[in-house]
Amino acid sequence: MATDGVQYNGMQLNDYLKKLDAKDGKVDNKIDASVWNSFAENVGAQHLRKGDSISVFQAAQEASPLISGDTPEMRQKQAAVRTAATAASKAGYSVSGEMMRISLTPDALTIGSHAKDGYSVVSPDAAQSRLAALGLKEGDNGHMDEESMRLKMVEFKPGSAVSKGLSSSSVVQNAVQNWYNQGAKASGPIAINTFDKSNWHSADDADTAFGVGYSYIVGLHDNGDGTVSGYVEDVYDFSPKYNGDSGGVVDKITGKMLTQVCELQDAGKVQNYRTLTPITIRVSKPQGSQNQTWSQKAKDAVRPLTTQSQREALSGVASVGSAVVDGAETAVDAVSDAATDAGKYVKQKAKQAWNKVKNWF
Predict the structure, then answer these.
(1) Number of neighbouring beta carbons within 10 Å of residue 19
(2) Is the Cβ–Cβ distance between 29 and 55 less than 8 Å?
(3) pTM of the predicted model, to two decimals?
(4) DSSP string over 74-114
(5) How far apart are CA 65 and CA 226, in angstroms?
(6) Where does the pLDDT of residue 241 fall: very low under 50, low under 70, confident under 90, or very high at 90 and above?
(7) pLDDT attached to residue 258
(8) Residue 196: exposed, middle, or buried by beta-carbon count in 10 A (0-12, 13-18, 19+)?
(9) Which of 22, 30, 111, 350 has the fewest C-beta atoms lying within 10 Å of its C-beta?
């Protein structure tokens, strides 16, 4: 709470929020979205949608832990985990590594184009319109509740590493193939549980699980050329409400890491956001000999990110611990023996950073 002496811009938080309350010329214990969003951007809080307001009391509840959590220790932990997540992303975990990197990098969630990283960030209002056009409306499911509708949205570009990564997941492929087998007709959101290890066939599936977890496929359409396109929608959040476990998604990993990641999120060092990722899946005719899964050659046509030997080295991934956390070192080890000096340097630095992180977990 603000009464603990937390300060912002040299003022106690309660006093500063009262100042924001008065900016519209009224003192009604409400802060308008137009005022709140600039402040929220600075401290890492969730935005409000246009026309909404937040009470001074609720504003204090949301902002206080973010300001008090901005300590040298938390910034150090954030930076170390971000370095390891970036290394994992470059070493083949293009979905989970990139999702975590974004969550740990405040600038990565600045509204606007992030062309070099293959995505754009849009406001909650723009996200609502975009999702509605794809058949996702407020209140439809757990991703569309009032709190989630305040999240910014990261929309990945077609051809981005994340798009290719999700398109290569057999969990995603099978869901799309089932839709195609049933007549390829317009439908509502298709829920997928990428954590079901019985459906894992490669590192792509583990990578998908720890990137999008419990998510939805929306906007599917048949391209008429043997492929189907659509989107995977998800909310990147370690909160338990998305799977009902005491520790949320991270409880699937290890209790120790759960404590640390949730600590980072509570301090605003792991930020929540929504994702929308385009996918393109090659489908087989539902009858006859053509009803078969993708070949490795077809997968590589969509995701030419790693060599076959690298895929085999990564195929044993069975937990996010090996995908992003404990396995960041393993992921970097998967770099080809023919790695350049620059690649070896990145590998060495990633290991050093991750050794520091493992000491905390």
Answers:
(1) 14
(2) yes
(3) 0.75
(4) HHHHHHHHHHHHHHHHHTT-TTHHHHHHHHT-GGGGSSEEE
(5) 51
(6) low
(7) 56
(8) exposed
(9) 22
